[in-house]
Target: Aldose 1-epimerase
Amino acid sequence: MQIMKESFGELDHKPVFSFTIINDQGVEVTAINYGCIITRIMVPDKNGVLENVVLGYEVLEDYLSDSNYLGAIIGRVAGRIRGGSFELDGKKYTVAQNDRTNHLHGGIQGFDKVVWNAKIIEDGVCFSYESKEGEEGYPGNLSIEVMYTLNNDNEFLIRYEAKTDQKTLLTVTNHSYFNLSGNSKKNILNHSLTLKSDEFLELDEGLIPTGHIAEVTNTPFDFRLGEVIETGVTSTHPQNVLVGNGYDHPFLLNSNHDNEIMLKDSESGRTLTVETDEPAVVVYTGNALQYNKDVQDVRTSKYLGICLETQGLPDAIHHSQFPSIILDKGQRYSSITKYKFGIKR
Model:
């Protein structure tokens, strides 16, 4: 195992570094300490050709102007909070409204837009950040660590650990856009996705859960036996049309750490298996991917990547039937998601 540290720029007089973890198989994961952004993951195809399977930029300035959250850690709360407000113990809190009147992905300057501390650890990198009380409107001083590690089984693990000195909200995810074709040669419409999920959340016009948990049976949301992404893009189902023709929906997972999420590109032979202890995954097919800069010399466009955001349910604070995303004082937040890369010939 090899870990390389290089300069990647500077922001507000704080140095930004890139860290590249290389295992004995030649698989590489590169991340920077600005937003804990994963900039590159190099994995082989069925012919042994190493190529990048996530969307990413080459220079810091492109990330500073990015509006797509490429590769970033999202928090304090991933997804939307209706009305940009919530109550805890009878007290109302107002958080940044950066998606019309709603709160999205931690606010105007969420975890994705700050410089984290970073240190090299065994087989990876540990990023840490102190989110002060009142940041983006959230209560409590929050200490969080995000650990990226890689092993020789081509498993990339993200571990989250956090604690707060006051009751607050927390559900964190990673917003990498995967494209298993390699170097973004093609879009992800012919990627096949398999999910161990019987239910998904219905969304309203603001893309916020209505509270209704819908069955996937006999809908384009049934990925239990595997389905290509294009199915949802061409679908006339109102929920597919609502999000811009595709998917941007939370799926409730039937099991955890049980090969519950599998993505495959038959042409390259690459596979990605995601396992997590989170209750859900938000599947986002890049329906609103906007052009900022080229990625790997390819123009950013709709369906160029797919996000598999393992997390708690969006807007859970307003739905008592959803698993809680409240973190109490003295309680330890701990979560792990594993990404295993493979080949199916």
The chain has one domain: 2-340. The mean pLDDT is 97.
